[in-house]
Design goal:
CATH architecture: Alpha-Beta Barrel
CATH superfamily: Metal-dependent hydrolases
CATH topology: TIM Barrel
Largest sheet: 8 strands, mixed
Distance between the termini: 32 Å
CATH class: Alpha Beta
Strand content: 15-25%
Bound molecules: zinc ion
Length: 254
């Protein structure tokens, strides 16, 4: 289900941050309490804050229990920010999901990762070449879009979690995807009701692919949403990102 309007205006896109981690993610800083995150979001002028804590395959995290705790806390907080309580869920193989369907559906925001290949609980493709990983990414997303589990795809196609590849091989996992393959999967995602993340760390690291991804998405009418992958309060801010995204997308500040 789409939780944000369709837009390709980077000023509008950067008024929302849909990828953030609270203290329920082990990698987040202790300052990332829900209260502090919401106050920071207000200070930074965000209209939407989605909290997306990790939910890894075979972990010891109680995703639904944490959601209920955050929900209870949120009820006591008065804020103009639209707060979505979700999770960074795991499509860790073709048709493999870490949480029961009912949990995905109970969350405000089911954000799905399909690229956490650095985890030893994640399926690896039989073909371990960059093209093998690209095809695996497509197959996992295709299977996911045959369900209605996902509201959002976080860091789509990002090779950042492939520690076994050097920088050139990482870039190759992206450049080997054809426009047709990308257009088709973007279209299928749109029909399935998912938005695609403009994951700013990946966008700035792989600008050529990000440009292609964004404009193909625009061509097929895909929904996008910005996420900074914040693990600290400062990283919740999207200030300055519109200019940097304009440079990536249009090569100049317009
Ligand atoms: Zn992630
Ligand atoms: Zn994350």
């Amino acid at each position: 289900m789409f939780l944000l309007e369709r837009t390709y205006d980077v000023d509008e896109l950067t008024r929302h941050n849909v990828h953030t981690h609270s203290v329920f993610s082990k990698c987040a800083k202790p300052e990332m309490t829900l209260d502090a995150m919401i106050r920071a979001a207000e200070d930074f002028g965000l209209r939407t804050l989605a909290v997306t804590d990790h939910s890894d395959p075979r972990d010891d995290i109680d995703t639904y229990g944490n959601y209920l705790l955050l929900k209870e806390r949120l009820a006591a907080i008065d804020t103009p920010v639209r707060v979505l309580l979700g999770a960074e869920l795991s499509a860790y193989g073709i048709g493999k999901y870490a949480e029961p369907y009912a949990v995905d559906k109970a969350l405000d925001f089911a954000s799905y990762s399909h690229i956490h290949y650095h985890l030893d609980t994640w399926d690896q493709p039989a073909d371990r070449s960059p093209r093998g990983y690209a095809e695996h990414n497509l197959a996992v997303l295709n299977a996911l879009f045959d369900t209605d589990r996902a509201d959002h795809i976080t860091h789509p196609f990002s090779p950042c979690k492939m520690p076994f590849f050097d920088e050139a091989q990482k870039a190759q996992t992206l450049s080997c995807l054809t426009d047709n393959e990308l257009g088709d999967i973007l279209e299928k995602g749109e029909r399935s009701g998912v938005s695609w993340e403009i994951h700013t760390p990946t966008f700035f690291r792989f600008p050529a692919f990000s440009r292609r991804f964004f404009f193909l998405g625009k061509e097929v009418g895909a929904h996008f949403a910005v996420g900074t992958d914040a693990h600290t309060l400062d990283a919740l801010s999207t200030q300055g990102l519109a200019e940097r995204l304009r440079t990536v997308l249009y090569g100049t500040v317009v």
